Structure formats: structure tokens, C-alpha cells
Amino acid sequence: MVYFVNISAVLNSCKISVIKSAAYGGKENVEMKLTREEKNWILYDVGNSAFTLLIATIVPIYFNHLASGAGISDVDYLAYWGYSASLTTLVVAFLGPICGSIADTKGYKKPIFLAVLAVGVTGCLSLGLAKQWLVFLVIFIIAKIGYSGSLIFYDAMLTDITTEERMDQVSSQGYAWGYIGSCIPFILCLVVVLGSDKLGISMAQAMTVAFVITAVWWVLMTIPLMKIYEQKYYVEKKPGVVKESFRRLGHTFANVKKEKKIFLFLLAFFFYIDGVYTIIDMATAYGSALGLDTTGLLLALLVTQIVAFPFAILFGRLAKKYSADKLITVCIVAYFCIAVYAYFLSNQVQFFTLAVLVGMFQGGVQALSRSYFTKIIPANQAGEYFGLLDICGKGAAFMGTAIVSLVSQLTGSMNTGVGAIAVLFVIGLIFFRMSVKAEG
User: Bigger pLDDT: 255 or 317?
Assistant: First the structure.
């Protein structure tokens, strides 16, 4: 596929800076190319980000179309969408640590990753067959569970494909290329969906094509990683793998309370990433419920992806000069300001401004949080620890989307519902600074 070749070619020429060890004469910046393992790991971000972008943009609008056709009000549409996202995160939060603990066993991470990936891809394809709003929501929940589950194991693979010194840069590159690479299938989907009348097909048929394009892209970008991935850090297999995994998981839960740095970071992540994911998950639904122009909304969120690309790389480069904790702090404060700004949102120009602001800090806070956490956990337990992180990340998103949905319905104001999440960034920042000062 020509786009796959082009992305691979760009990654081949991509360079990142790493710190050379003191054994070679002190700390010295040396330009090194991405390794094959790092490039193929990054390509999966390019693949799954296509699904991320689709469900954050076109899918909520299509669901609004299905819901309004069934007589569902705009406020209830936003609430049902939020509740479905909340249910998804609860399921993943429950299953994540369990599957992650099992996947830490030697030889298990790759097969489990492929299993949840299959659920996500199959769900994506099946969305094109749903014509009734409730059926659509059920399939959406299943698809997103598979997608979210795959990210637990994908993130945990970071310890296997690179070194600690390169993690900030490689993690940032993953998000960066995910943002820009996902624009390729997304633009194809936009052409089909927005040009459905000229193509002589219905909206439902256009959406089916969009889901097929996304699923195929997702699979193609996964193949290179699966060809070369090897689990380097693991727990030796013992009789009764599932039982042993539960035992290790219980031990990890008990120990994490004693590891103040990890424990406080998980608490911080629970709150601040909640706000980030809520804004990402509900931006289009929010704009659509406000009655903003559909085409304008989609173009604004495409701008988010384009802006996010250079800024994600920028934060990776800044991580060589400034500590990751300082950069994460900047991102949290910026997101607090974005949430406050969203409260006053009322027109297309303001939504475009919001899209640009989100793009500036989205990749930085996600990439640096991932690499920061990877550095403070045991490498051979990455799966179960990232499962715990997913409880705090995806599990927190339950709270964020529920807050938006409940406050919107109780007050009758969608702006108030969205603005209410600003407090989560304040709480998250407090816990994060406590984590930075805590001993490991």
C-alpha cells in the first residue's frame, strides 16, 4: 500500500536525540535513527489512531443522525453518548489489569494483544451494519473495548522495543505519527461521507465504507509490529497461569500502596487524564449538540490532528532539555485553561480555537505520561502495571463523561457540563506534584 510505504520511508529517515553514557566521555547528544522495532511500534499508533479519530469525529455525528431520527433530544443524545463511553471504560478498567497480568507471562503478551485487536477491528466493521441507534451503541461499546484493550498491551510493549533513555522521544514519536498518519484514512472517509450525495450512495452506505477503510488501515499498520515483536521482559510461566496471574496482581495491588511515587502518580493520572480523555471523546458530540456546522466540526478536529503532530515531536525534544515532570505540569495547567475556555464556547470560530489548543498539548501530556510511568515501574511487570494505569486512565474517563452527562442534564446547559471538568485538572496537578517529590 503506497501510504504505508511513504510513512515507513519517512520513519526510516527520522532521527531522535539520545544521551550517550558516561562511559563514552560524559553526557553527549548523539543523533541516532529509530530502530526497526521502534518504527514498527510507532506504525501501530498510526493504525489505531485512525479508529480514534473516526470515533472522535464522524461517529458521534452519525449517532446524532440515528438518535435524532428516533426522536432523541440533543441533551439526551449527548448524555447517552457519554454513558456509553463510561460503560466502556468501566469494562476495560476491570479487565485491563487481569489481562495485563496474564500477558506478563512469557509468550502471552502478543497473543492476547492480537485477541483484543480482533475484537476491536471486528467491532469497527460491524458498526457499518447497525441502522438503529441502540444497536449501534452496543456495537460501539464492544469495538471500543477491543480498541482500548489493545492499547494496554501496546503501551506495555514500550519496555521491550526501546531503552529507558529513548522512551520519552520514542513515545512522543508514536503519538506524533499517529496524529498525522491517521489523517490519511480519515480524509478518505471524509470524502466518502461528505460526498455521499455526489457518489450516489446513502449516508448509511457511506459510513459502512468509512468503517471498512478504517478497519483495513488499522490491520495493515499492525502487521509490521507483529512480524518482529519479541517479549523481552516477562515473568516465567508457572502451572496455572491464570491463578498465578491473579496472585501476582494481588501482590502488585498491595505493593503499589507502599510505592509512594507510583501510587501518587496513579492518583494524579486518574484525575488529569480524565479531563483529557473526556475532551477528546466528547468534543464532536459537544459541538454537534450546540448545533455547530458538521463540516466545520470535522475540519476543526482534522486541524487538531495536524497541529498535534509537530507539538508532540516538540515535547519529545523538550524532554531532552527539561524534565518530563515539568513538561507534564505545563500540559495539565494548559488543559485546565482549555476546559475553562470550553465553558464559554458558542460558535464555530471558538471551536476552531479550541481544536488548535487541544492539538498543542494533547500529544505531549499523553506521550510523556506514558514514558514517565514506564520509567518508574518494574519492566517485567509492565503489562499489569499498565493495566493499573488503564484503571486510572480509562476508569477515570467514566467519571469525566458521567460528570458532563449528569451536569448537562441537571442544569440543562451543555456548557456547564463541559466546564465542570476543569476541577479535575486542579486535583490532578496537586497529586502529580506530590508524586514528583515522593521517593520511589
Answer: 317
